[in-house]
Amino acid sequence: MKDNSAEETHSKRRIIAAAKDLFHQQGVRASQVDEIVEASGVSRREFNRSFRSKQKLAKEVVLAYLADIKSGRSCLHRILASWSDFERSLARHVTFLNQFKMLRGCPLAVIWNELTEKHDAIRQVLSLVFEALTKRMTAFFRKQKTEGHLS
Questions:
Q1: What's the Cα-to-Cα distance from 93 to each of 72, 87, 126, rounded to whole Å?
Q2: Which fold has domain 4-146?
Q3: Residue 72 to residue 62: CA distance in whole angstroms
Q4: Are 132 and 72 contacting, i.e. CB atoms less than 8 angstroms apart?
Q5: Comparing C-alpha atoms, which of 33, 39, 31 is closest to residue 14?
Q6: How far apart are CA 31 and CA 83, in angstroms?
Q7: Global pTM?
């Protein structure tokens, strides 16, 4: 007998991964739930069981970005401990943007640009993401200044 909890977690991760890509490529509004379901390879029923709405999914996508950034697992937002790390981070951003021929910006900014007042929960989580990124950069530059690498 399969572990339903593990299966549901796997389905949820697949839905979030598919939504991340579609939201970045098309925006949240233009990404249809049926497209997300198809891209993730799960059933509509699994989608509804996990999220119930595209707005709840969008919030979970942003929370996934936040978790990746805080843990250092984000491919674009790794932990910065040296100038080499900083340079690699910038190079990863350029490579990422080149994948989209510079036609799409930051995936989080794409989501942010579509929000209205009714999306307050997503706005709050995005604010936490931007705060985490700001703290990360501030800590890096403070360390560099303390070590005499910045004037």
A1: 15, 10, 19
A2: Tetracycline Repressor; domain 2 (1.10.357)
A3: 15
A4: no
A5: 39
A6: 38
A7: 0.82
Amino acid at site 125: V
Contacts of 57 (CB under 8 A, 6+ apart): 15, 16, 19, 36, 47, 51
pLDDT per residue as tens digits for the range 119-131: 888 889 999 999 9
CB within 8 A of 102, min separation 6: which ones?
A: none
Query: What helix, strand, coil percent values describe the chain, rounded to 5?
Result: 75, 0, 25
Domain definitions of the chain by residue range: 4-146
How far apart (Å, rounded) are the C-alpha atoms in residues 40 and 38?
5
CA distance 40 to 21: 10
Tokens of 47: 């989608």
